[in-house]
Design a protein that fits this description.
This protein has about 375 residues and is mainly α. It is built from 15 helices and two strands. It has one domain.
Length: about 375
């Protein structure tokens, strides 16, 4: 792709496609949590048609976290570490964790528990948001990772990437005792691998090349989805026939090599996506910065415990012929509510800051 010369609200050369991907990924994360924590992926709960449908939906969305880190590597490789950004992220996590607990308690939706209070006050220390914990560590490592990247030439960096992918992705298909990273992609090792891949794409893959094969990327993405779905359902069927108490969830590991390919393909597709509508571009630019709060709100430690059973009643989707539509409608509703809440929070902070600034000016 050549430089994006269109002007969106005064922002030049901004990759709107990747901002759009951030929005899509957060919707995907809501889908993943709805399906898993709502019990919809359990064959015992769903009829045959819904079980297949939910497995397809899970596979379509499973690349969300991988894509988030690819985006981070893509942009952070040309950024500098800012302690303010680190503290702002920490502050946002603290705000939602404490505020949601207080609101739920005041409305009588939860009972007072000392352990829940502690977890809400120090959510990062108590690991209430696994993604936040790992992401913050990755951000702290970012300046050192960038130094390593720039110290290596293109060929050395490529060799490093190949080695990392073989060790921490390809080898995950081998027996568990042979794997060096047994987190399934939920740890800092895999985040660093994805960071390097995103950085490599930014630094060494020509934009013209990415744009040239725009349709190819999405085609391969769907091929990977089909492969994963067939593999997952086949493993489940074999285990059921052999009366083995196991399922094929391992195929959904973030560091599964096919999932990795699926993630990179979707990333490249949106990287080469050109949105010509200025109105749509402005909407994307307004919504994208608000999406992280969607994760912080719906995954708050006490809210998450009651969201799926007490509020959403996900059991109605188990054998309902309209189950998939209920899932998507609920997910979009949660997304919109959380985005509105974050917009109000940010607008309020901006208003307060401007008031304080004006008062200081008047007092000078």
């Amino acid at each position: 792709m050549s430089e994006n010369k269109e002007d969106y609200s005064g922002i030049n050369n901004r990759n709107i496609g990747l901002d759009f991907l951030r929005i899509i990924c957060m919707v995907m994360i809501l889908i993943l949590h709805y399906l898993s924590k709502g019990g919809l992926l359990d064959a015992q709960n769903s009829n045959h048609t819904n079980y297949i449908t939910y497995n397809i939906l899970e596979t379509l969305a499973i690349i969300a976290v991988n894509c988030y880190i690819l985006i981070s590597g893509y942009f952070l490789v040309k950024s500098e570490f800012k302690i303010k950004k680190f503290l702002n992220l920490w502050g946002e996590v603290f705000f939602y964790s404490v505020t949601i607990y207080v609101v739920l308690y005041l409305f009588g939706l939860i009972e007072f528990k000392f352990t829940d209070v502690i977890k809400s006050i120090v959510p990062v220390v108590t690991k209430q948001y696994w993604f936040v914990n790992v992401y913050l560590v990755m951000y702290l490592l970012m300046p050192f990772l960038n130094k390593l990247i720039y110290a290596l030439g293109k060929e050395e960096f490529k060799k490093l990437l190949i080695l990392l992918i073989i060790i921490f992705s390809v080898m995950t298909v081998l027996p568990a005792e042979w794997c060096l990273d047994k987190t399934g992609g939920y740890g800092i090792i895999w985040f660093v691998c994805l960071y390097f891949i995103g950085a490599y794409i930014r630094l060494f893959i020509a934009n013209d090349y990415i744009e040239k094969y725009h349709n190819k990327w999405i085609f391969i993405y769907f091929i990977c989805v089909i492969f994963i779905v067939v593999a997952k359902l086949s493993i489940d069927w074999i285990c059921k026939k052999l009366v083995i108490n196991a399922k094929g969830e391992k195929v959904w590991a973030y560091n599964n090599p096919v999932i990795l390919i699926e993630s990179i393909m979707l990333f490249l597709y949106f990287n080469s996506l050109r949105i010509k509508s200025k109105w749509i571009s402005k909407m994307i630019l307004k919504i994208a910065p608000l999406t992280f709060a969607v994760y912080l709100i719906h995954e708050q430690t006490v809210l998450s415990k009651i969201l799926y059973s007490n509020i959403l009643h996900t059991e109605i989707c188990y054998n309902n012929s309209f189950g998939v539509w209920i899932v998507m409608g609920s997910v979009l509703l949660i997304f919109c509510i959380c985005v509105i809440i974050e917009y109000i929070r940010k607008s309020s902070l901006t208003f307060i800051k401007n008031k304080i600034k004006n008062i200081k000016i008047l007092n000078q």
